[in-house]
Amino acid sequence: MSKLSQRHLLGIKDITRQDIELIFETADNFKDVINRPIKKVPSLRDITIANVFFENSTRTRLSFELAEKRLSADVINFSSSGSSVKKGETLLDTVNNILAMKVDMVVMRHASAGAPHFLAKHIKANIINAGDGTHEHPTQALLDAFSIREKLGGIEGKKIAIIGDILHSRVALSNIFALKKLGADVMVCGPPTLLPKFISTLGVQIEFEVKKALAWCDVANVLRIQLERQQLKYFPSLREYSLYYGISKKMLDDLKKNIVLMHPGPINRGVELTSDAADSHHSIILDQVQNGVAVRMAVLYLLAGAA
Question: Whole-model pTM?
Answer without folding.
Answer: 0.93
